[in-house]
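Researcher: Predict the fold of Peptidase A1 domain-containing protein.
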Amino acid sequence: MASSFHFLLLCSLLFLIPSHSIAKKSFHPKALLLPITKDSSTLQYLTLIRQRTPLVPIKLTLHLGGQLLWVDCDKGYVSSTYMPAHCGSSECSIARSKTCGECYSGPKPGCNNNTCSLMPDNPVIRTSTDGEVAQDVVSIQSTNGLNPGKVVSIPKFLFTCGSTFLLKGLASGVKGMAGLGRTKISLPYQFSSAFRFHRKFAICLSSSTTSNGVIFFGNGPYVLLPNIDVSKSLIYTPLIKNPVSTASSYFKGEPSAEYFIEVKSIQINEKAVPLNTTLLTINKEGYGGTKISSVNPYTVLETSIYNAFAGVFIKELANITRVASVAPFGACFSSKNFGSTRVGPAVPPIDLMLQSKSLYWRIFGANSMVQVSNDVLCLGFVDGGSNPRTSIVIGGYQLEDNLLQFDLANSRLGFSSSLLFRRTTCANFNFTSHYN
Ligand SMILES: *[C@@H]1O[C@H](CO)[C@@H](O)[C@H](O)[C@H]1NC(C)=O
Ligand SMILES: *[C@@H]1O[C@H](CO)[C@@H](O)[C@H](O)[C@H]1NC(C)=O
Ligand SMILES: *[C@@H]1O[C@H](CO)[C@@H](O)[C@H](O)[C@H]1NC(C)=O
Ligand SMILES: *[C@@H]1O[C@H](CO)[C@@H](O)[C@H](O)[C@H]1NC(C)=O
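Model: Structure tokens for Peptidase A1 domain-containing protein follow.
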């Protein structure tokens, strides 16, 4: 009773403050920004956020289809603003937690009584664990689309505590994973509800391990040097829902938080790859279909798709000398015979055909061929075995130097195709700030 009385009082006081003084005090960014680096040994895409009080930089592996932000709370979590989410609280219901627990080795971050939990997931080792839901301060740079702007903070950012063992398989120095998936508590959802901006975000992964790519949260412009607004002229395709979770463990009835699109067929050099199209649709058990993944370094194809795909590609490159395969790839060529173009080695274009014949995602040499040594180039797609959960997993290498915008409100994906055509790359965001 007492607290609801205070709440009412606070509301009426806020009403009395003239609105212009509120506007002056609080800065409302229209978009936010995170840098992304590519780790050369794991090929994971990493980002850095500041969290806790006092703020510390936390290195995280990017998980495009991940449900949430999780960090290791077992080791080194020190913060005066850590707040566990108590069972029955609104935080637990926003997080859609179904479990309430006790902990015997606390109290400490990650171990408190009467708190709800979720399952932080590491898709690299396909392992998840039970973790306390909590809130803490997160601070992040805003942007006008051209440069980084003021740093803003979110005092009660929801996340889940992972454990040290869950970091296995992640890049060195990483302390958790940044989930950008389709849930109410993923980074993009929390950022857009904290600042009431468009429920959209865009990723632009750099192909270089030495210069940063970028994620924009919010609407465009997304400007890359030399002054190219890549939010213009995107091609759109619907985002499809998979009714069955694709996480390492989940409750019955939970949908997937990952981003699926509908690829209807594949063409190479405008010739159709003969495929079993049943594999391209998602069935009732959640099998099949095409998803986009930042944790797979290369696109993974179900075996029959891979064989047909590689077969057509090899046939179309009949005049080029094939050399012994280099794992994990199955089709490698002598690089001496290739011409070069603005968009990489001159090879037949690969088209992922979408909702209509005139709509496709075209993949050029820079995204299809991987230089494995001085004189060997391999087709950068891998065989995912038969009966995998998802038939086509579009991986990081195929996403690099393409901007992908996830428009959550309209459930659609906007993509730019290769930015190399437009004489820019994902490493061309101007990270010089006026506010340093
Ligand atoms: C949780 O409650 C149990 C008793 O029910 C107690 O043994 C334990 O120490 C408590 N843990 C924490 C973290 O407070
Ligand atoms: C196509 O794939 C589906 C799903 O795996 C399978 O049930 C069916 O037998 C396949 N059809 C052919 C002709 O191979
Ligand atoms: C090989 O064939 C492709 C497609 O027909 C052509 O573009 C390319 O120039 C040829 N390369 C060589 C080395 O003949
Ligand atoms: C990057 O942004 C800074 C700050 O606005 C500006 O001074 C600088 O000229 C920009 N760099 C380029 C190459 O445009």
